[in-house]
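Limitations

Structures in this collection are predictions, not experimental determinations, and the ligand pose is part of the prediction. Treat each record accordingly. The example that follows, with flavin mononucleotide as the small molecule, is included so readers can see exactly what is and is not provided: the inputs are given verbatim, and the output is the predicted complex.
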Amino acid sequence: MKKILILNGAGKKNGNTAALIKAFTEGAESAGNEVNEFYLQNMNIHGCLDCHGCARKQKGDLHPCVQKDDMDQIYEAFVECDVLVFASPVYWFDITGTLKTAVDRLYAVQSNLGFEACNRDTVLLLTSGAPAEQNPIPIQWYSIFGQLGWKSLGMVLGTDKTDEARSLGASIR
Ligand SMILES: Cc1cc2nc3c(=O)[nH]c(=O)nc-3n(C[C@H](O)[C@H](O)[C@H](O)COP(=O)(O)O)c2cc1C
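Predicted complex:
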């Protein structure tokens, strides 16, 4: 059983991204995994200040950022999770600003605990208006994963790929 944390950066609560997440979650839960999703649009999460206060906090602090906002809920879930899922519609060839802001704030965990303690398996669930090959996001994301040493379990990109998302979820054990 794996603990799966989903960061949902979609604007719409019941749009295409939500459909991919639903299918992925059904698959993951059918395989006995535990899924915890955060719908970021409804959360109060500020941008990273690059103040390096996280590096000065006591090592292992569950709330490693000096800013006090809803990111604290995500920090608590992050330290417990085995698999981190980034879910987002493509906005201007990128993930949404909502998700990017939360990803930037994860910097505090690696700054506080070090790269190795933050090593996670990852999944990308992306929806887009244009076909997948016209969206360059995966290249950018695989660069980030490579830098962090994170292993990718797979990616789904497209609006009609719920079966693929379900299978990817079910493959996690
Ligand atoms: C501000 C904005 C920018 C977008 N930029 C792109 C883009 O660069 N490439 C693309 O394929 N689709 C783009 N789209 C379309 C969305 O990615 C697509 O409609 C997606 O499925 C919406 O997901 P949702 O239903 O979860 O909100 C954009 C949509 C919006 C609102």
